[in-house]
Amino acid sequence: MKKAAFIGVGNMGGALARAACRAIGPDQVVLANRTPAKAEALAAELGCTVVDSAADAVWAAEYLFLGVKPNGMRPLLEELAPQILDRHRVGEEKVVVSMAAGLVIKDMRPHLAGAGYYVPVVRIMPNTCVTVGKGMTALCAGEAAEAYIQGVEEILSATGRVERIPEELMDQFSAVAGCGPAFVYPYIEALADGGVAAGLPRRQALEYAAQTVLGAAAMVLESGKHPGQLKDEVCSPGGSTIAGVAELERGGLRAAAINAVLAACHKNTQLGK
Predict the structure, then answer these.
(1) pLDDT digits (tens, 9 = 90+) for 146-162
(2) pTM to 2 decimals?
(3) Domain coordinates of the chain in residue numbers?
């Protein structure tokens, strides 16, 4: 039996399948998709296996990563429940892993009732940066056993950072890490625009801006220093950097970023109701 099945290989499901192949090997990964050709193309790229249906994926793997839209989760769980029960009867336990936004674990459980036992459910929320192995993923374990949680973490180990959080913080996490890349991209573009305005060619300006943001993020994560301290270390008295920082403050950069996160969190809360 293979380790991980990805049921639904859209943008996020496909990205996680790619990472899983790097982490545990393509021989441990199976794919299933409503449009088989999409799964077959990805499997040909990665060297993993395609199964014909979601039900077949239950027979093929221990961890079932469900990459479907929230409105498709209920029918999928109800379809899988009898198959999960069949495997349970022969001693094969399954772990359901949801990446559907807004669906809490307790709301998914009734649709697994047909399995006839307490199926472990883990909820994850990856951001799009998992595509390049630099993602930030939240993991809510519910009542899943530690061994199952570690299994999910192993499968996701090539996606970037994975953090266990209480489920009640998922909306807040999503507002920072899930929505955050879309807040950072305009900043990178603006830095590059500034470089072009100052005389740099567009291609170089964009490369310098993106690499600078990447490096600054790495400094925060790897040094353990507060961003304010790192900023101060770059700002010489009366220098060009502090002059630029003063313009960012005048333009309200920090207030805008805070308000963007709060607006996204409020929207997440509304969507979950």
Answers:
(1) 999 999 999 999 999 99
(2) 0.92
(3) 2-166, 178-271
The 3-class secondary structure across 210-226, one letter per residue, is: HHHHHHHHHHHHHHCCC
Cα radius of gyration rounded to whole Å, the chain: 22
| Single-letter residue type at 88 | H
DSSP code per residue over 121-181 = EEEEEE-GGGGGT-EEEEEE-TT--HHHHHHHHHHTTTSEEEEE--GGGHHHHIIIIISHH
2-166: CATH topology is: Rossmann fold (3.40.50)
pLDDT digit string (tens) for 194-244?
999 999 999 999 999 999 999 999 999 999 999 999 999 999 999 999 999
> Which CATH code for domain 178-271?
1.10.3730.10
What end-to-end distance do the CA atoms of the chain give, in Å? 38
